Amino acid sequence: MEQGSDAALIKRAIKAYLRSGSPDQPGKDSLIREADGQRYVLVRNKAGLMAVYLVVGTTSVQRVREWPESLDIS
Questions:
Q1: CB within 8 Å of 68: residues ≥ 6 apart
Q2: What is the per-residue pLDDT for 74?
Q3: Relative to the CA of 49, which of 1, 13, 24, 72 has its CA 20 to 30 Å away?
Q4: pLDDT tens, position by position, 21-60
Q5: Neighbour count for residue 66 (Cβ, 10 Å)
């Protein structure tokens, strides 16, 4: 996927995170990582990881509570 699409997926995941009602604010540290053939959006801020979203199709994200051990969340 091209970089512009990655930015759109990150933005979509951040919007979903904000709709969840958490008082914590995501920062510019959010990014996309791949593991086991799947793409994930890591919603982060300077304090660390806030949420993980699985990329579904090419434009959707779905929050996951568990992710593969091979996913680098650092």
A1: 35, 36, 38
A2: 86
A3: 1
A4: 888 899 889 999 999 999 999 999 999 999 999 999 989 9
A5: 6
